[in-house]
Each structure stands twice: as structure tokens, then as C-alpha cells.
Amino acid sequence: MIPVFFAFIFVVVSPSIAKDSNKALRFGNTTNDHITWAVSDLTELETQLSVCSWVRRLFNAPYPVIIHYYPHTHGFLLGSRGNHNYVVGRNLNLRTKYGEIPDGEWFHVCMTWSSTDYTTIVYLNGEMAGSKLTRHKTIGGTRDGKFTVGNAASSKHPTYIFGGDLYKLNIFKRVLSVQEVRKMSANMCSDEEVRLNEFRSFRWEDIFSKPRSGSVTEISVCTDGQAPAVDQEEDSTGQTVISEGILERLESTEQELTETKQQLATIQSTMSEELAIVKSTLAEISKKLESTEQELAETKLNLAQSEEKLRNVTETWNQTLSEIEADKEEEVSSRWDALYSEKYLDKKLTKEMIQETGLESTDGDILGLFVGVTITEDLIDYLKQRHDDTVICL
To answer: Would you tell me how many other CB atoms lie within 10 Å of the CB of residue 233?
Structure first.
């Protein structure tokens, strides 16, 4: 295993910070204790934002609200007990995570959102506490809306009373990075927010100076440049340093990130292989389909040709039968018609006459019955009608 050497990282607190940097605001526990102001244009927060603040809970309302932006369309809301981490129609409930922090203790919270991935992320004391996909909408910023700190902007209600202390509540017009959030949450008295001043859409100094309703009072913090911090220590010179606990968590987070990237690479590789197999299978199916269609076309052509041949054979057969029938009728007529000659008509039939006409065998047997009878046309017609070709052929 590669050894990791830790060096002390010093965070120097600049003395040149805003005049209200050592002041926090304490909100009372009634519905009248809040700060509210109207805004007419919030377009710079429509597609991305970060809302960050130091918080200390002193009152146990069911759904305490830190800040709520309420426009005519989609807004956002950040609570102090994890019930509400709401952006454009979707809420991320982190009450269990928030419940691990005792009341009366300062903690840092930061909520980020962007329309790039439509994902809300919440950080507690610099560590990601949870995330959630939101609706594919933007924050309503082109029509009049209003902000309220300490209660809900839509309706001041006892269940939404904040009743605690706020410090350095800032709204940034972009998504802060993990490193920026961690630096901000590392020391309550640092000037990290000021370092990001160009990205602050609503500054703590401005919120601090807005008109207040009810009991919203100022309290002193960081009077000696120090305040309760998260996982921090002092070295022998009195300067604030990041403790090994944070460094260990940073190393663990980096390791988890590396493992996640490796898993993602494996998933992408597997998906690429499966996609290649699917494409190959589809190509084979398409090829077989083309072959089947060609075979079907050939089969249809062969069937049409077979039907044509069958029609020709049928016609030939019917023609042959007709010719046979005609030949038989002609043969019958020619045999019996021999008796119509003057040589035999009106004369008595004799055996010699039968032999002369060629009507022998069965014909002779039939005519033999009429030997001695005068041959008339009626007799010949009778023989032709009663003794057809079938009898003759026997």
C-alpha cells in the first residue's frame, strides 16, 4: 500500500471582513418572527444555485424553515430539520440525518441544484447527506416572487417557525463544488464566503440589513476570531488547522470516488459488449429476414408459374376429352350410317349384309336379332338411340 503523508493545512482568517461578519441573527418562536422581501427578477438563479448557512436550532417546530423562495411557478425551500430540501416540485427528506445533530449546536448546511442534471444535493458539515432528481423545470425567476427567512413565504404558519440562530446565509448563482462547500463548513469564522463574492446572488450582509418582523435580534459570534467549528483543532501558534478526522474522510471519499469510477467503467464496458451483441443479433435477424423475403418472392413466382402450367394442362385435358367425345360420336354415326345406303334400306336384313357393313362382333349380335326384318330408317334410328357407343365398344 502506498503510504500517505499528511501535512498541516492552515486556514488563515483574514481580519478585513465585513462589519457584520461577527453577527448572527436569532429568530423568535412566533409566526411574526421573520425577514421577508420581494423580488421582481431572479433569472440568474433559474438554472442553478447553492444555498448555504450556519444554523443553530433552539425551538422544536415540526417543519422549521430556514429560507423559502415563493414565485408564481417553481421555487425552493430549505429547512433546519431535514423535512424540507425542496426544489422545483420535488422534496428531499433527510430528517434522520439532521436528527443526528443535537439542538443547540451550530452546524453548516448547503443545498445545491442545477438544471444540467436536475439534481438536488444537500451537504451537512461538508459531507453529502443525500441527493434527489427533481422535475425537469427551472426556478421561476421572471415574475414577481418573495423570499422569507424564518418561516414559509407562502403562508406564515406555526409549524414552519424556525426559532433559532442563522449565520452567513448566502445564495450563490452557481453550484458550489464539494471542495468549496468543505472549505466553507470547516470554520465558522473564515471568510470563504467572501472569497466567492462574485458568485453570491444574495449576500449575508444584505440579508442582515433587511427590515425585520417581530423578534429577530442580533447576537455576537466570532468575537475573538474563533467559534465552534467542525472537526478542527488549534496548533501551538493558535492558528486553526484541519484535523486528521477531515483528512481521513477526504481520503475515504476519494477512495470511494475512485471505486465508483471503476464500477462505472465496468458497467460501461459491459453495456458496450451487450450493445455489440444486440447489434450483431439484429444484423443477423435482418439478414435472415431479407433472405426469407427473397425466398417468399421466389416461392410466389414458382406458384404463379405452376398455376399457369396447371391451367394449360387443364385446358389441354378438356380439349382432349372434347375431341375424344367428338371422335366417338363420329365413329358411332359412321358405323350405323352404313345401313342408310340404298343397298340396305327397305330390304330384309341378312347375315351377309351384317358382314358387308362391317358391323360384326357385338354389333353383329345386336343386328342378328333383326335378321329377316326389313331395314328402315326408323330401325336404324332406334339402333343408334338404344345402342350407343358404350355398347358398341364392348
So the answer is: 12
| Residues 101, 163, 96: CA angle, nearest 5 degrees | 30
Closest CA to 217 of 30, 20, 25: 25
Q: What's the grid cell of residue 148?
A: 422569507
Residue for grid cell 358404350: 390
pTM, two decimals, is: 0.55
**Rounded distance, CA 134 to CA 129, Å?**
16
Q: Round to the nearest angstrom and report the end-to-end CA distance of the chain.
A: 115
Angle (nearest 5°) at CA 48 between 43 and 53: 105
Q: What is the 3-state secondary structure (H, E, C) of 98-161?
A: HHCCCCCCCEEEEEEEECCCCEEEEEECCEEEEEEECCCCCCCCCCCEEEEECCCCCCCCHHHC
Q: What distance in Å separates the CA atoms of residue 217 and residue 90, rounded to the nearest whole number? A: 33
Is residue 190 helix, strand or coil?
Answer: coil
DSSP state of 175: P
Q: For the segment 221-278, what is each residue's pLDDT rounded down to a tens digit?
A: 987 655 544 444 444 444 444 444 445 555 666 777 888 888 888 898 888 889 999 9
The pLDDT > 70 percentage for the chain reads 80
